[in-house]
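Risk register update: the risk of archive-format incompatibility is retired. Evidence:
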Amino acid sequence: MRWWSTRCLKTSDVNAGLCPAPRQRRRLWKPFVWGSRGRLAPCGCGQSPRFKAFQFLEQPGDRSGGVSGLVLAGRIMLTVEDRDMLLEAGDSFRFVSLRPHRFMNAHDGESRVLWVNCAMPAGGLRGSGESGMYGRLARLRLRWYARVGRDLLARYWQWALLATLLVPGAPIVAPFLRFAELLGMAVAPGPGMAGHALLAVVIDLVAVLWVLPQRRALLGGAFMGYVATLPVPRHVRLGVGATMLVVANGPLLLAAGLAAARIASQAEGMYLAGCFLVVLGLAGVAQYAALSRRLVVLGGVGIGDLLLAAGLDAPSAPGRWGLAGAALACAVAVAGFGERLAVAGGRWRRLRAGRAVVRDRAGIVVPAVRVQWGILADRPVLSVLRIGAAVALAFGVARLVALFDFDSRAVPTLIVAVAVIGLLLAGLYRTLSEAHRAAAGYLASLPLPPRYWPLRDTGFLMLVNLVPLAVLLRPQGRLGGSLLAVLAGLAVAGQALLVLLRWPVLHGGRHRLVLSLLLAAGWSGAAMAAVSR
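Archived output:
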């Protein structure tokens, strides 16, 4: 016989005090006699004593199975996962108890519900033991991944299509063919130790950039907070996580298959195939480190890349095989101890925070700028890609104009570069606006003037735009003379373009990309016409 409380299965409810902490569930309730009405159980953890305790009689090996119920009187709101159902007297319900669920009384008076818990025999759901637990958890994670991935693709399909078209070669498939060539070069003889190490690092970086936009879909959402409170073995959770990575890396694995077919036909195919598997394993560990935000694991991946590069250039066969095995073992070992290191690091930080004196720097930076930087920091992938691409483009175009020796091609090239930089940074308008919209209720309670955040977001992005503009125009400004006035006018016009791009980005709907491109093209044409005069 076991004692259990009525459990709310959402992490936010646990944090809000709506259900007891996992370690308190067994020792929180005191026994009582089952009656027609629930009794309030004494709560010794300082929370409000509004929990109802129930007594269950279970056979050895029984576990949670299904939930059935009938509303006898009143009205309740039943939430299963993300679906809300308003049930009145006479309505019944049934669902699997492993699905996150909660309920509330939606009636003015009392509501009476006949609630039946069905215990599954030993063996679990649709399977036996841990295999059934793995299957159920994997299906739920895959369902969440499909839903979030579909929404992500529907939202950013224009950028994905544009990225595939920018790679030379056949449309859509060219990036994956180039990745297959990169995988083949990573284990091919010739590049040397430094070349092999660089190629391995580039492959790890590509793999990480592939999964970072899918991080929310791969982590399973708020449901995984509930799974963390269940007695799910660690190897089951790791197995489900590995399955999700395989699904997310489907296109990259197809490219890896093409590379493996080419490697198998070469001399020393067995050794090169082993090194190829080590490269894939290191890339997978790097993805795990990026998704779990355990940067210490990336250090082990870097050491593994160096050992693999040394093994590819080793003269003796035993040394080559030994270094290749040591490369993979190093990354796996660091990944295995990464969780313990993270826990130890958290304890050390808490201990250090208790002894340290906190310095308030609120007066150093304007509060609005601190909020805006915090919004971009919460979305590191998108922010780094946009700002990094703008700065990288500025460096590249500045170098190109220097090669032109500032002839007649220089000014049109600078104008196009300023327009593209504006397009890249204008996408951050939407990131900032969505964050403000999520906190609209709180912001409405503050004594802020009208259009406070739109004006400050525009000024903030103009401030960010100064960095690529300085990188782009500063080398040319050293020439002085009338050219300096042209460059200053181009910088002012570039800031004006960034201001104008706010409208299509926030109000263009599904056509915001097309409208932004048309506006940038019109601005570029007007700027070239003005310079030509």
